[in-house]
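Q: Sequence in, structure out?
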Amino acid sequence: MTGKKLIMVVGSVCLMLIIAALPFLAACAAPAPVVPTPTPTPTPVVPAPTPAPEKVIDIKYATYYPILHPMNYDCYAIWCKELDKRTDGKTKTVLYGGGSLYHPREAYDGVKSGMGDISDAWPNNWPGRQPISEMYHLPFIAPTASIAGISLYDNTISQPEILAEWEPTFKLLAAHTSAIINLHTSEKAGLVKTLEDVKGLRLAGDSVLAVEWFSKFGAAAEKIDTHSAYLALEKGVIDGGMWPWAPLRSQKITDFTVNHTVIDLCFVFPHIVMNREKWESLPADIQQIIDDISGYSLSAFSGNTLTNGSLVDTEWMKAKGDQFYTLPPDEKARWASQVMYTVDVWKEKAKAAGVKDPDKLWFDLHKIVAKWTENPYPEDEWWGIEGVGRYGSPNRPGGWD
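A: Exactly. Output:
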């Protein structure tokens, strides 16, 4: 074999080997760079907005009762706390005592305008404005404030002519009376036992009607409410007055009045009302809660507080040496004969105000009083042991003397 042929054979073999090795060489080659798949940019998570805290509803409860009066700390304050408790803090109810928002004479317009949201409104302070409701100030309606208060509420909501004097101007929450009204005189004036003993005395009353009665009894009478009584007695302007039991101790009227003639003559008669716009602005659940602790319950609570507080106060007065005299039936009849004419006067006013049958209205009131006298309203649990005028209450500012 020539050299040329040998070279050709060897070259062919080498070429064949190279071709055969190519797949193996490819397998051993450096791997192609891996291009990473880009990670998607995460969508930012936007937290849900924190809901704004629910706005607390402020409620202003205005009352004429002074701070140390049991109606404030043993009744109204408990009602305010109960409302805020049942609404889980959605309401903040503040009690303004002592006429600090407005004078009692201004309560009708004060709560109507919204200066106060809730108020005890006393028609004896604006005679003639609610002439049909003035029936509740007439003599010898009920034996105690606990009976009178719930009877007045029951009667008001049952008689459209009377209710129209309160609603829809206001939202009527409850009704009650003062403690029962009697005659209280100074040491110098002495203890009144007969109509004749009244003649010549300078006496005050907190209603126009009381002043009218005293004048008929022969006294020099003027309208002075319990807020002003202390100064009038201190200066010797008056010898005493016809006032409820309840404010005598709390307003220190007992510093001067040491004689007490028990006549159980009459009451003054606040209704507890709420500003109409304020009421309608409240959520339905809060309206329901207010209704649950008002109405018959608050009316009875108020009356019981005044009655029980009066019992404790009269015991305190006796312990300090005050004199008490209860008119015997024959003498009480003499006093009644001098004041019962005002029932007929009221009936004429009621007719002029649109009442078709004032006699029936008067009769129906006494039927309702008899009903609640026979079956008193039971105490509600939410009143608490501090309520209903049980002195010694931890709610009383300043403790006890």
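Residues 3-27 form the longest helix (25 residues).
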